Amino acid sequence: MPLSTKSLLRKFLIWKYKHISELQFIYVLSILAGFLAGMGTVLLKNLTHYIRLLFELEFFNNYQNSLYFIFPIIGLLLVYTIKQIWLKKHIGHGISSTLYAISKLNGIIPRYNIYAALITAPLTVGFGGSVGLQGPAVSVGSALGSNAARLFHMNTKTRMLLIGCAAAGAMASMFKAPIAAIIFAVEIFSLDIAFTSLIPLLLASVSAVVTSYMFLGTDVLLRFELTDKFEINDILFYIVLGLVTGIASVYFSKVFFGITNFFKKFESRAKRLLIGGIAIGSILYFIPPLYGEGYGIMNNLLKGDHISAIGTTPFNLDLSNIWVVIALLLGIGVFKAIAMTTTFGAGGVGGVFIPTLVMGSALGNAFAKIINNIGLDFQVSESNFTLIGMTGLMAGVLHAPLTAIFLIAEITGGYELFVPLMIVSTISFAITKYYVSHSIYTLRLAQRGELMTHDKDQNVLMVLDIDKVIETNFIILKPEMKLGDILKKAVAKSSRNHFPVVNDNHEFLGVIRLDDVRHIMFNSNLYDKVDASSLMHADADIIVYEEHSMNDIMDKFKTSGAWNLPVVKQGKYYGYISKSKLLTAYRQQLINFTK
């Protein structure tokens, strides 16, 4: 930052401390975070739109099917080049990376996250990658919120709140659904529902929506007006739909993790690009509706135009046969998860949110068509079941039932479908939760013990930095050291009452405590006869730096009853953690969380 800018910022901060309270300034920053998130979302949508316009030129019309194969590979190659040559940094999945920054980096998100997704996501989606823009929008907004908080020297708690505000702003701007955006921030980012956090979320959400209206007008991504009311006679069908979307959510999650693990086997990004690019190109060639995000599928199904939703295919199929249409819609639902994850595996940048809606809309519409055409005189609203299918997939895959309910309710402009929304989202979420313990966003973080939840005690332990509680100023002993040397070089010079014993490779062998030598320390006849190996013993437990989380460490202290435990890092002795220092650090962090 230039000197003059630093000087102006310093003067502003001094003025702020004198004239504006901390809470008032948080409100101002939340409005700013919403505006920036809204601007980031507008840029993402416009850049993607302009890239797509290039491919709508008449020149490309004659080669449309072939280009479905070629364009995604070109987009992935451009993203690969930008990552390798310019950014030279990893770009993670937007929401997962943001959750990691909250739980392990004290809400500090690198500045390059602001522009990385802003460039690579439109290239991925604009060229046909079968992913969404919601994740990148959250990534851009969260990075803006984090860096705005750092610029104005806000504390960790405020920084995390502003990340939540920016995430809510990105959601509100994308769908023009401010209430669902607030619930999304609370549900996904585990923010406290308190007055101090609710008002900033409201301000950010409204600010982002207003920004979206200013630059995009009244245009919305999902265009639908509810015309068919909820019929109590359809309640059994909604229950069955909940079961179907629950099973589909489990399938979606399993496919995501399975394909992701497959691509991890290839260390070379170039190999991932080659394999993934050919795979996604082939899928899109045979199933063109999977090209890009898929808003066309959802909007056409909501309008009742399944012919436009399916589009043109390389097969000469009879679309006047409703069962052929149903089969194609089911195929879209099944292959959307595969196409999305393959795009990620090949190096594409995008989000999971929109693909879940696309899959849900296809399955919900196909389900309604099956009911209406099995010849039993049943008649249900296909548009309503399309919407409810989207809710079921969102609730299951993202583990966000409340977000799913309120997003669809806001999109429809009312709460006529609130009962079926609740039924389907609850059943789908329950089934998915049973088979997949965490969402796509959070599973990896949960497995590493890095997931922020609504459990405040666990969150406090999670954000504690293990390096800040490890003490390394212990005098180290070798197993061959004699008692005389131990007393002279260790006991006499240390205020500690325990001494780690390591071998020549610095591997931890055991510990000698002052009580272990107290009864012989004045017997000079033993000074040259007794060595450390005969005095040392195993410690109560061992902490492995790379494996054990703060929660694990606290459990070890509880179960062992010890007041000090050794830490081993990369197989070598590293230091000790004392229970008293850990509890002191915990109390201080708890104060930071609650003040």
UniProtKB/TrEMBL annotation:
PROSITE patterns: CBS (PS51371). It is a multi-pass membrane protein. Its main location: membrane. The chain crosses the membrane at residues 21-43, 63-82, 112-133, 160-186, 193-215, 235-252, 273-291, 322-339, 346-367, 387-408, 415-436. CDD domains: CBS_pair_SF (cd02205), Voltage_gated_ClC (cd00400). Keywords: CBS domain, Chloride, Chloride channel, Ion channel, Ion transport, Membrane, Transmembrane, Transmembrane helix, Transport. It holds the Pfam family CBS. Residues 470-529 form the CBS domain. SUPFAM superfamilies: CBS-domain pair, Clc chloride channel. The keyword Membrane applies. The keyword Ribonucleoprotein does not apply. It is found in: Membrane. This is Chloride channel protein. The lineage of its organism: Bacteria, Pseudomonadati, Bacteroidota, Flavobacteriia, Flavobacteriales.
